[in-house]
Amino acid sequence: MIPKDITGETMHAKAHTLCGLAVLALPLLAPPPASAEALFPYTDTREVARGEALYDDYCAACHGADLEGEPNWRQPDEDGYLPAPPHDATGHTWHHPDEQLFMITKYGTAALVGDDYKTRMEGFADQLDDDEILAILAYIKSTWPERIILRHDQMNTAEGQ
């Protein structure tokens, strides 16, 4: 059973609502680099290879070597934190536009949805430069099936990216 808050809204639904509100707050944070406004360079084999190596170094410990995420990623753990979600086709990464994924990776989830959102996803602004973040996200996107890439590209187009 998915936990609910006092309004009866599920934690997962609340997180999506908060993410939506966070998109409205994005202009308050430093803007992404110009290259983040376009699609991630997921067809550039050099960038994808660089992104895979960086993913292995910075992301795989939580999100899995095969992008599988942590078990029970939709349910808060015993401390109330949501486990790291998968970045493969079974997850929800592809449900978010490029700019939002970039901002979450750079600044952390709480910076976008509020400090009361219990997450262990810290931002990587102090560890990775913008091009490295874009390379990681390009690697992740390059692993998705073509139908999901197409849906993600359509979402980016609708978002003006």
Low-confidence stretches: 1-18, 20-29, 32-37
How many strands, which pairing sense, and closed or not: the largest β-sheet?
none
**Per the principal axes of the C-alpha atoms, what is the gross shape?**
globular
Based on secondary structure, the structural category is: mainly alpha
Which whole number gives the mean pLDDT?
82
Q: What is the count of helical runs?
A: 7
- Strand residue percentage: under 5%
State the total count of DSSP E strands: 0
* End-to-end CA span: 36 Å
Percent helix range: 40-55%
* Cα gyration radius (Å): 15 Å
Reading the helices and strands in chain order gives HHHHHHH
Describe this entry's structure for a reader.
- Helices cover 46% and strands 0% of the residues.
- It is an all-alpha fold.
- The chain is globular.
- Residues 1-18, 20-29 and 32-37 have low confidence and may be disordered.
Keywords, please?
disordered N terminus, mainly alpha, 161 residues, globular
Topology summary:
Elements: H1 11-25, H2 45-58, H3 60-63, H4 98-107, H5 109-113, H6 130-142, H7 146-158
Helix pairs in contact: 2-6, 4-6
